[in-house]
Amino acid sequence: MYVFIMCFNAIIVSLLNSGALSIVNYQLSSPHPAHPSMFVCLLVLPCGRIALDSRLPRTLNVSLIMIMSMRRAAMCGLILELAVAGTVLQAAETPTVAGKSTAVSSVELFADEILARGKDFQIKSSQVEKAFTELKASLAAQGQGIPEAKRDEVERQVLERLVNVKLLSAKATADDKAKAKEAAAKSFDEYRKRWPSEDAFNRQLVALGMAPAEFRARMEEENLFREVIDREVKSTIKIPDEDIKKFYDDHTAQFDLPERIKASHILLLTRDALTQQPYTDKQLDEKRKQADKVLTRAKAGEDFAALAKEFSDDPNSRDQGGDLGTFARGRMVPEFDAAAFSLEPNKISDLVSTKFGFHIIKVTEKLPARKTPFDEAKKDIESYLSTQEAQKKLPDYLKKLRDDAGIVFVKK
Q1: What is the rounded radius of gyration, in angstroms, for the C-alpha atoms of the chain?
Q2: Residue 322 pairs with which residues in a beta bridge?
Q3: Residues paired with 44 in a beta bridge
Q4: pLDDT of amino acid 389
Q5: What's the CA gap between 357 and 271, in Å, rounded?
Q6: What's the CA gap between 180 and 115, in Å, rounded?
Q7: Closest CA to 58 of 259, 322, 266, 305
Q8: Which pLDDT tens digit goes with each residue over 302-317?
Q9: Interval 159-216: pLDDT, tens
Q10: 0.70 exceeded by the pTM?
Q11: Cβ(405)–Cβ(120) under 8 Å?
């Protein structure tokens, strides 16, 4: 099992065991058609927050699994720990119909009460009601709901999250905010590029119950919290060298890298990118003729990257000239896998037909199996272990923020 899965699962399982997280697998419109089961794991958090973590990274660079994925998984866990504040949404075993409830809004029946207050802010019932409604809408978008019997429990958890948002936002410096804004803009653009068009991207967000501006704002908020936690908590942690070496020695199999290849492809879809409906026979015939023409040009020596940018329907790799990065066997659909690993470097395949369409594949490098050296993995193991320690320290840190702010929860 790859290090990414190991680290990510360790974090998520701990949250699930504590009842802190509800996970929904939401099938997207195949943003990377070369992969056999591209989906994102929707981590449903209070206030309708959704953290997206692709189970199949775009580059699929196995040699950098420790470098890329451990860092991402660890930070994802840290942000989740923050967002849920130790106690958040317990998944509903018996969902209500599309998240709908016949209950009348408490704001309509009662005055806008103060539910929590501190030295410089207060949280009112209308804010909790709004956050609860957003959460319910996000769950409804995935066909889940919140039983009315759990409403009080979930509203309490949402209230605690709103308090933590206030406290952490107050700790953010101008530098934190600038870094968060820059990171959010970059992440937003990366997500946007995974879709064939602006309209397709927006439709997927609507399916998740949010507008593009809201999605971007929440990404910025997530990054802001990460910056605060890095500076206030994680930066104070020092992992001894012997602990890093012990982790490496104890997980030695996770650093075994199999045979890999570096490849690019040109994809001509044979199904609608948004609806995933197969093309008609006439459309398929047109696509086949187009694919044959592109293949002829590629084998004649034209620049492969330029052809990919002009003709490929894969939004993830098109702008990179079709580059798929480095990957091992089993990471692509079987037909693609077999063709790619049979090629010699700098050779171009014939048309490869998969359920996604026609692929033209070029292998640029073959990498033999090897073990990642300790020196190469050390920095990222340290980052992962630091994040684990930060998770342990986070509850005490949040408690101190609450105490310093004089937070009082007013019972309804």
Answers
A1: 24
A2: none
A3: 22, 50
A4: 94
A5: 7
A6: 29
A7: 322
A8: 999 999 999 999 988 9
A9: 988 998 899 999 999 999 999 999 999 989 888 877 777 888 888 788 776 788 888 9
A10: no
A11: yes
Residues in the chain: 412
pLDDT digits (tens, 9 = 90+) for 46-102: 322 223 333 222 222 222 223 333 333 333 434 333 333 333 333 333 333 344 444
Residue 152, token pair as written in the block? 């009080």
Q: Which two tokens stand for residue 405?
A: 């702010």
CA–CA distance, 202 with 231 (Å, rounded to integer): 34
